[in-house]
Amino acid sequence: MPTYSNRLMGLTGGGDDGWGLFYRARALKDAGEPVLELTIGEHDTRTAPDILDAMDASARGGHTGYAAVPGTRSLRDAVAKRLSSFSELTYGPENILITPGGQSGLFAAHSLACDPGDTALLIDPYYATYPGTIRGVGAVPKPVATHPEDGFQPREADLMAASLGAKSLLINTPNNPTGAVYSDATLEGIARVAGARDLWVISDEVYDSQIWEGTHRPFASLPDMFERTLTVGSLSKSHAMTGSRLGWVAGPAGAVAQMINLATHTTYGVPGFIQDAGCYALSLGVEAEAAVAAPFLRRRNMVLERLAQQQASNSLQIRAIPPSGAMYVMLDIRATGLSGNDFGEALLEEERVAVMPGESFGVAAAGHIRVALTLPDEVFATALDRLFAFAARQMDGRCAATA
């Protein structure tokens, strides 16, 4: 019998892919159990009807054949305009490759930056697919840990120490899972490391429309960074178009040309009618993006306010890492004596509330859980009540056991 490739067999590093609890929660829902899901970054509202109307009109108008592999000129222009408006850089269509989602963009960027066996750095905690994406191009992922006491901002010294011999560094701000928005000092430290070690910086900025505190500074806009930065973006989060699979990689024209060659031999582009819907979505401006983001800020504040009330009333020792961006809140649940995995499993079993264990996102997030802000407000409030009641029981039991 023929064998499977080592590359695919080793995609998850020989361990769980980080999604085990999510799969169990979905299995319970499929069996009819009323599970409240706070797991993945899926909006509780669907893609806006007018965007779908634009998609339908384009498809019925005949844009259903092969589209240009790099992306339609109109969408590349629209993405270039958006990126230029967020920075002091001037992007043109030659700087943009349209991809089937941000995930495909990450794969293309690492394919450009790394040869098989090369070391590719990533910040821990990280989005669960990052290590597998790096292994998928034959490179070797090397996490660099951040720390809750730093607000999960990466330290320049740690990056410098880890980066000797590396080819790339993957960063994500606003960050999934932590909600950290990297400060100017953090970004400037990353830039110094990238310059000193001659790294490609792959900057995942899919949450750039979800900023709660501070400002988003595109990494490519830092001095001397444009020529070594590949910026990954998407309409998934900004316009609730997760299922449309519409993203991009932006960077130097020569780099984009090489990734277009990859797309020719892999994805062969994105359907034209979806790209036309993307053009329409971007034409709605930042007001539309702000409207999509607004519920997540509201629910983020709900978590922080309810957590403060719980702590004041019964000494609940769960702590939030206040997110400055993105659609998640990280909760430090180490006071319960449980790991993130054990907390999540028991919470699902006892309360039918599903969260993502911090361990799904790397070693640095152990003892935490990630709460997605993705249920309607009233249902979300019910899920929080169950979560906090469960946590209080764990701590009461721990206190009783040590009394």
Q: What do you see in this structure?
A:
The protein has 403 residues and is an alpha/beta fold. It folds into 2 domains: 6-46 and 288-392, Aspartate Aminotransferase, domain 1 (Alpha-Beta Complex); 63-284, Type I PLP-dependent aspartate aminotransferase-like (Major domain) (Aspartate Aminotransferase, domain 2, 3-Layer(aba) Sandwich). The chain is built from 13 helices and 12 strands. Strands 2-8-7-6-5-3-4 form a 7-stranded mixed sheet, sandwiched between helices. The chain has a 5-stranded mixed sheet with strand order 1-11-12-10-9. β5 (166-172), α8 (184-197) and β6 form a beta-alpha-beta unit. α4 (73-85) runs parallel beside α10. The longest helix is centred in the C-terminal third of the chain and has 29 residues, at 286-314. The radius of gyration is 21 Å and the shape is globular. The termini are far apart. The mean pLDDT is 95. Its EC number is 2.6.1.-. Its cofactor is pyridoxal 5'-phosphate. InterPro entries: Aminotransferase_I/II_large, AspAT/PAT-like, NHTrfase_class1_PyrdxlP-BS, PyrdxlP-dep_Trfase, PyrdxlP-dep_Trfase_major. Keywords: Aminotransferase, Pyridoxal phosphate, Transferase. One of its GO terms (molecular function) is L-aspartate:2-oxoglutarate aminotransferase activity.
What would you call the shape?
globular
Largest beta-sheet characterization: 7 strands, mixed
CATH C-level of the largest domain: Alpha Beta
Beta percentage is 5-15%
Element string (H = helix, E = strand): HHEHHEHEHEHEHEEEHHHEEHEEH
Measured between the Cα atoms of the first and last residue, the distance is 61 Å
Protein name: Aminotransferase
EC number: 2.6.1.-
Keywords: Aminotransferase, Pyridoxal phosphate, Transferase
Enzyme class: transferase
